[in-house]
């Protein structure tokens, strides 16, 4: 049987922690390798003309690496698609980037964004992941989950709101998730901003209360393939 391997594909630095920080820790502590691909720079939307300062970009990526070390990632990779402008890039280019990553890490489980997120980069990432992970006969991907990024997933049109159907307990990992999130000091805001540590903790407690746990991350199972059991050989 193929060894389990997890790929987390997100649009921006910090999305991986916000949506899946506790889930990543759970996989890592179970001995399953977790690899992250971050597609957009996460900076250009805040700069004049969308120009990215290479020094600032490397600083942000170092923040991501530091957060990844706390979570226990096996590997973290970066693409360089334009921040909040991924709709200006041919979808095929994004799909190819993701396909190469999924193949490289031989992923069996993939986590990504909710397609209904207000943020355009999130939506495009979700669509590209689904395309890259088409259930072809030679595909190793068995399941795909969407997660929520606070300030984008909950603030959308009613018909596009994130509605989870799976909850993963993260009480023992919540402190680690928050510690990793603090590596992104330039991305955090003070309470009651949704991108504050307090808001992340409150969301985890709320999701926990929805399923009888003290803290949880909410997920949406988008795709799952359950293979037939192996035929037992008669002796």
Could you characterize what this model shows?
- This protein has six helices and seven strands; from the N terminus they run E-H-E-H-E-H-E-H-E-E-H-H-E.
- 35% of the residues lie in helices and 18% in strands.
- Strand 1 (6-10), helix 1 (15-29) and strand 2 (34-40) form a beta-alpha-beta unit.
- Helix 1 crosses helix 5, helix 2 (54-71) runs antiparallel to helix 5 and helix 3 packs across helix 4.
- It is α/β, with parallel strands linked by helices.
- The model has no long low-confidence stretch (mean pLDDT 94).
Question: Which keywords apply here?
Answer:
235 residues; alpha/beta; Rossmann fold; 7-stranded mixed beta sheet; 6 helices
